[in-house]
Amino acid sequence: EKHISIQRHLADLEKLADLKEGEFTVAVSQNTVLHVTDEKKRCPLCPEEKFKACYSHKLHRHLQNLHWKVSVEFEGYRMCICHLPCRPVKPNLVGDQTFSKMGAHYHCIICSATITRRTDMIGHINRHVNKGETESRFITVIAPKSSHEVLKESATDVQVLPNYSTPQKTDSYFNPKMKLNRQLIFCALAVLAEERKPIECLDAFGATGIMGLQWAKHLRSSVKVTINDCNENSVTMIQENCHLNKMKVKLNTKEEDNDEAMGDGEENTDTIEVTKMDANVIMHLRSFDFIHLDPFGTSVNYLDSAFRNVRNLGIVSLTSTDISSLYAKAQHVALRHYGCNIVRTEYYKELAARIVIAAVTRAAARCNKGIEVLLAVALEHFVLVVVRVLRGPSPADDSAKKIRYLIHCQWCEERIFQKEGNMVEENPYQQLPCDCHGSMPGKTAVVLGPLWSGALFNTGFLRRMLFEAVQYGLDEAQPLLKTLVCEAECTTLKHFSTHSPYEENKQEECGVYIKTPNTSAESSLVHGKRKSEEVIRNTAKRQKSENSAEHPAFYYNIHRHSIKGMNMPKLNKFLYYLSEAGYRVSRTHFDPMGVRTNAPLAQFKTILMKYSTPTYTGGQAEGPVHLAEDVQAGEQVQAAADGKAEDVEFLEDDKSGVAATTFTEDYATHCAAD
């Protein structure tokens, strides 16, 4: 039975105290003195030593003000505060006398737990609701279950629990902020699906199944989707979401194998396989062309299994959300998980991406496989890495050689990868371009790593991802992919061809796609040992051609190296000045104010100082200096725009700076005339 403190109405609580229903109200309306004929009654929720027996009118006010008004409501019931000895507090020693103090508390209607504070009780009930536990063990009438919320993303409906953004241990997790991450992974899979059909892809941590559903719904017969999760509640929700999107479900667990199909699923004949097992187990048992890992936190525990059975020239993508360790907030955790020494730097996001790629490279090398990095993105909430697998000891050795240590100057933030070789350097500071060690006392540099020292992007693959994003209307991914293409080429030119990149020679871009106008069997990817040597040879040629135009490592933050008391030029103007000086330059997605360039830091600061202007202090003499410098800079930019207007796209953004300076000069002249 339910506790006496849980009632529907105040009248039910008064009945426990032998108060007749409406007795107090009738007495007040008739101006009757109750205590003349009434006997004293005690409170049913308070012990005798806390509240002594009293007359009905006083007991009514006590029940209403002390118990009913501070109750917690749930499903039509009120959980009133209780002072009975249901929750004994630790005994207190007062002199020689020991007494047990009874604390006020609430009784949970669902799990019969006792909670002391009202706010804690409300939070306790909300956690039950979030878990879907709304049926009380004390209520004879079954309480209606909370309806699941249906969200829509990229034409895919998913059914989620009310706590989808703040999951508990047994709940499925859906994060709307990871929409961009899901779109990037979808574009990478779409590019692979164009290379060979059909491909077997695995979403190792399905949760709600949103990612696998998007793959199957848009790519259809090009992919064979398998969604896995080790949580039984998540597997049930994945099946419900498949039925919601009219997809056939093939359930495959350790215990049993059976097929399920919805009757209304005739509109879409695609079948999604749903498995319930550990991610390491399914990747050991089966081979896949595309594997995506998105665990809660680090993914290093699943890398060995992922590379064990992934097919040659397949793709492995992983999302790491342990940003506290990757972004150098918990350095000891980064050392424990990734075996890497790091410090907080201005380029910490790219450092995080290179840490993850180094761990991926080592895991692939243990399976005699090499990698080619196709994409590396580090944003606020996650680090996404997409790599192509190259089977064989030679690619594994080539990839392992790109793992090096980084020398980082803590004074000027200059950095450089250590030279190859096993010989001990007599003075490692000589490798740094700066002279901080000679001018500053003590040790000025630290060794970070080991890190991935190779390229972070594949330009051809990114262009094809951009084409797929346009084809499927993925608006959020398109701006980022355009930035990544410019960053991969290390240029500020933002020209993208409107024709399909698949019309180009794909053998040069990826080295694996054989294009013929005949049957699909002839245009599919060539497997087997007969073509392995040719594939490896083409891949080596492509890597050799791309290494010559590899983008510079790391970037500089323009605000970090600004000069005190000087106004910096606009970022787009500064990029133009660096390119005019003969350096490769581009913006970076890692930092909105970052500049990726092959210019040394000293030259970077020199150009920044050259085109910076003193801060305006209101004097009339400084006005013409500002105007002359800005007008001259504007003329240089305009001349360059006239020469190649189609190449310099950022000039329109800088006209506001010249206009603002002209207004400042006119205003100063006007004040002087007055």
From TrEMBL:
Answer yes or no on keyword Transferase. yes
Q: PROSITE patterns attached here?
A: SAM_MT_TRM1 (PS51626), ZINC_FINGER_C2H2_1 (PS00028)
As one GO molecular function, the record gives: tRNA binding
* Record's subcellular location: Nucleus, Nucleolus
A GO CC term attached to the entry: nucleolus
Name of the protein in question: tRNA (guanine(27)-N(2))-dimethyltransferase
Q: Which reactions is this enzyme annotated as catalysing?
A: guanosine(27) in tRNA(Tyr) + 2 S-adenosyl-L-methionine = N(2)-dimethylguanosine(27) in tRNA(Tyr) + 2 S-adenosyl-L-homocysteine + 2 H(+)
Q: Which InterPro entries match?
A: SAM-dependent_MTases_sf, Trm1, tRNA_met_Trm1_C, Znf_C2H2_type
Q: Which domain of life is it from?
A: Eukaryota
Every C2H2-type domain range: 108-128
Instruction: Write down the SUPFAM superfamilies for this protein, in alphabetical order.
Output: S-adenosyl-L-methionine-dependent methyltransferases
Q: What family does this chain come from, according to its entry?
A: Belongs to the class I-like SAM-binding methyltransferase superfamily. Trm1 family.
Write out the entry's keywords from A to Z.
Answer: Isopeptide bond, Metal-binding, Methyltransferase, Nucleus, Phosphoprotein, RNA-binding, S-adenosyl-L-methionine, Transferase, tRNA processing, tRNA-binding, Ubl conjugation, Zinc, Zinc-finger
GO terms (BP aspect): tRNA N2-guanine methylation
